[in-house]
């Protein structure tokens, strides 16, 4: 690879934009092409958060204050019963080193993407309505055939940032992309409610009922007065029929999934009727499963997997995407243009860390938090009530802070970044 690397990125999300931005810091004359299957950038989605070493990276990037300004301002999560009565509050810690269920950097995906994309949008080549159909690589380059145009072009590096169902991952590993996807048994819809159902509160509200069903309402700082709504269903691995039904609804698209949700939440109490009505009226609807990508490898020479394509992990996926983009650019710089050595070092650093986070998150977290039975709900609610009533959660955070306990950090080399030039 020359001192002006020529890189193709498939997919334009958080991981891709952080990588492109950081690569341009390392190589200001880099040629970066990004292909995106959608007709335009998708700047919507649920709230995401930033944790662990990703906090240090956004500070290094110089966008931490802008991200703070754009956060949802959520102060915590309030657990409510079918009558809307609160029985537990899980508050944000105010400490980015030890965060709670509500992050210090809780931000909507679209807002975060805009922050990362804005500085580079005029410095990269964007191609919409396009994907990678196939590739071949040799010692000097990777040659890509595009699906729609059928153009054939060569690059120094192909970066797959094409998400959970990454086709490039399937090509690289010689399997169906679904083989590396581990279904966690949690499924959710996300949408904008054009009304403030929280009545100005900065606390999100979480209502659970039997059958592993839950409704979340999260604050939206939009001055027009809005709320973000989520319906969630969970199913244990043993519930083969239940999982099959939900996955079929997901495959059917938005309308099919809405019909599934309407049936599941028709008579569950609380604000379900209003939230269901708002779901039907929204112009911003998205549904997905919670899943991990457990890939045995995340590189093959001049082809590399980034973000969800390589190591999706609900709960810390956005942070891993930020770390991955930073590390990949850093390793290319550290290895002085040796692509294969750089991607190998990237894999050796990122893959074990990502796998450790996936193991920590476990397979059953969402099922435990959203029980199937009334008895299970009573136990969960009693535990949460006791934890918050006697401030066990706050004391734990305080003790962790005093002991210097932090969220797991990725140990990165001291990359030789060039000094920033004044604009």
TrEMBL record:
It holds the Pfam family FAD_binding_3. One of its GO terms (molecular function) is FAD binding. Keywords: FAD, Flavoprotein, Oxidoreductase. Residues 7-355 form the FAD-binding domain. InterPro entries: FAD-bd (IPR002938), FAD/NAD-bd_sf (IPR036188), FAD_aromatic-hydroxylase (IPR051704). It comes from the Eukaryota. This is FAD/NAD(P)-binding domain-containing protein.
């Amino acid at each position: 690879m020359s001192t002006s690397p020529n890189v193709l990125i498939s997919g334009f999300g958080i991981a891709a934009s952080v990588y492109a931005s950081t690569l341009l810091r390392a190589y200001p004359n880099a040629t970066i092409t990004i292909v995106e299957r959608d007709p335009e950038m998708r700047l919507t989605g649920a709230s995401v958060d930033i944790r662990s070493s990703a906090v240090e990276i956004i500070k290094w990037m110089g966008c931490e204050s802008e991200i703070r300004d754009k956060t949802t301002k959520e102060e915590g999560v309030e657990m409510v019963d079918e009558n809307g009565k609160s029985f537990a509050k899980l508050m944000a810690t105010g400490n980015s080193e030890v965060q709670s269920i509500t992050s210090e950097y809780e931000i909507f995906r679209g807002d975060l993407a805009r922050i990362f994309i804005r500085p580079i949008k005029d410095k990269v080549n964007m191609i919409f309505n396009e994907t990678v159909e196939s590739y071949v690589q040799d010692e000097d380059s990777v040659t890509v055939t595009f699906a729609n145009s059928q153009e054939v072009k060569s690059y120094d590096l192909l970066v797959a940032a094409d998400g959970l169902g990454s086709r490039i991952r399937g090509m690289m590993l010689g399997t169906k992309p679904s083989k590396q996807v581990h279904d966690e048994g949690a499924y959710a819809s996300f949408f904008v409610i054009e009304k403030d159902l929280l009545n100005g509160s900065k606390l999100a509200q979480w209502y659970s009922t039997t059958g592993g069903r839950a409704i979340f309402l999260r604050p939206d700082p939009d001055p027009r007065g809005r709320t973000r709504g989520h319906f969630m269903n969970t199913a244990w691995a043993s519930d083969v029929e239940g999982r099959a039904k939900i996955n079929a609804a997901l495959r059917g698209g938005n309308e099919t999934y809405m019909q599934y949700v309407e049936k599941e939440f028709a008579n569950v109490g609380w604000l379900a009727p209003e939230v269901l009505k708002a779901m039907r009226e929204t112009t911003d609807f998205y549904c997905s499963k919670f899943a991990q990508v457990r890939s045995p490898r995340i590189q093959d020479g001049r082809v590399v997997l980034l973000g969800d394509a390589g190591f999706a992990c609900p709960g810390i996926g956005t942070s891993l995407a930020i770390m991955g983009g930073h590390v990949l650019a850093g390793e290319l710089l550290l290895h002085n243009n040796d692509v294969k050595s750089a991607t190998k070092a990237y894999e050796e650093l990122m893959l074990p860390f990502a796998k450790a986070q996936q193991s920590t998150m476990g397979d059953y977290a969402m099922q435990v938090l959203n029980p199937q039975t009334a008895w299970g709900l009573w136990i969960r609610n009693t535990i949460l009530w006791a934890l918050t009533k006697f401030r066990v959660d706050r004391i734990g955070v305080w003790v962790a802070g005093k002991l210097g306990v932090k969220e797991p950090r990725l140990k990165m080399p001291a990359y030789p970044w060039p000094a920033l030039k004044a604009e």
